[in-house]
Amino acid sequence: MIVYGVAILSVCVIAGKFLGDWLGVAIGVQSNVGGVGIAMLLLIAISHRFDSFKKDFGDTALGISFWSAMYIPIVVAMAAKQNVLAALTGGPVALSAGLLAVLVSFALLPLLSGPVENDVGESKTKGQV
Amino acid sequence: MADLITDVLVKNGLIFAMFIVGFVTWISYLLCKYLSNGRIHGSALAIVAGLLLAYIGGVVTGGTQGLADIEIFAGIGILGGAMFRDFALVATSFGIHLDEVKRSGIRGGLAVIIGVVLSFVVGALVALAFGYTDPVDISTIGAGAATYIVGPVTGAALGAGSDIIALSIAAGLVKSILVMTTTPLVAKRIGLNNPQSAMVFGGLMGTTSGVAGGLAATDPKLVPYGAMTATFYTGVGCLLAPSVLFFAVKYLLG
């Protein structure tokens, strides 16, 4: 049943967000700490047991993969509701702070991510950059 | 007649939003295919188109929700809101390699802390360069360079003025939008092509919307890895910025 997949996804998201909020309260910050990440780990944990469930649950996975495929359209909608006007009219301080933070982070990525150890699949190290 | 159409579109806002998004995506993929010979990813252009629409919405209404402030496009606000975004985001992790997550987990976690401190320092230096001297103002702007949530949370905690808080939100928005649009352009050069670097990338950048959009436009397979670490960033930022980082600024300024 497809709806089982959707329901499993819902439970993971709500449980993850709850734990994230709880973690935020526990360490005393007014923010959710890693709710989506926790929800992902829950779903991964469930999906690893999925193979054994498959014969009882049939097309449950479809309920999850549909929402996974809706991800890019949702991101397009997310882009369309950003406060772009405020970002562009925030003045030179906001522009330079945002821009420099991004540039420095880009520059640091190769240093922090390091060499890829025994690649999974196709992304073999291709000599140079 | 026109009233009738508007009425239906307003009443079925979320449904209409799905059509809008589908239409924008279709046009974007067509343009990419014929104009760039497939060199630019269709979703990258679709995201930029979304941002453009958001800008138009902002100019027309003067609101803060982009296109969603126009009544008939209000459904965009629901479809593109945090609820659906997180729902779909979690769904992308279905079938992810747990070994990858385990292997790169520590690196990703480290990247979150380094990312928060780095963005804060950069933002604080910019504030200094523009002549701000109050540690509260400097820390709030620094926090805004982390994400547009860390900024106002820090500002509120430290008692910053509303103009400074608005500035910190703007800095965070600039960051988020830049990450969304420029990630596919630099991905190859900075080695962003595998789960491990995606996890570090998410941790370094931290803006969930930016990382979510930027990776979607680069390689959708990398989205769950980046999102997983990015989602911890705002929480860590809200923890460090008004405390340790603020005290450091105060100490350094005497």
Q: Give the class of chain A from helix and strand content and strand pairing.
A: mainly alpha
Percentage of helical residues of chain B? over 70%
Domain module count of chain A: 2
Radius of gyration of chain A: 20 Å
Description:
The complex is a heterodimer of chains A (129) and B (254). By secondary structure, chain A is mainly α. Chain A folds into 2 domains: 2-80, no CATH class; 83-114. Chain A contains 6 helices and no strands. Chain A has helices spanning 2-26, 35-57, 60-69, 71-80, 84-88, 91-113. The longest helix of chain A has 25 residues, at 2-26. Chain B has 2 domains: 2-80, no CATH class; 98-252, no CATH class. In chain B, helix 3 packs antiparallel against helix 9 (162-186). Classes of the chains: A mainly alpha (129), B mainly alpha (254). At the A-B interface, helix 1, helix 2, helix 3, helix 4 and helix 5 of A face helix 2, helix 3, helix 4, helix 5 and helix 6 of B.
Produce the secondary structure layout:
The complex is a heterodimer of chains A (129) and B (254).
Chain A: H1 2-26, H2 35-57, H3 60-69, H4 71-80, H5 84-88, H6 91-113
Chain B: H1 2-11, H2 13-35, H3 42-61, H4 74-79, H5 82-91, H6 98-129, H7 135-144, H8 150-158, H9 162-186, H10 195-205, H11 208-218, H12 223-252
Helix pairs in contact in B: 2-3, 3-9, 3-11, 6-7, 6-10, 6-12, 7-8, 7-9, 7-12, 8-9, 8-12, 9-11, 10-11, 10-12, 11-12
In short:
The complex is a heterodimer of chains A (129) and B (254). Chain A is mostly helical and 129 residues long. Chain A has helices spanning 2-26, 35-57, 60-69, 71-80, 84-88, 91-113.
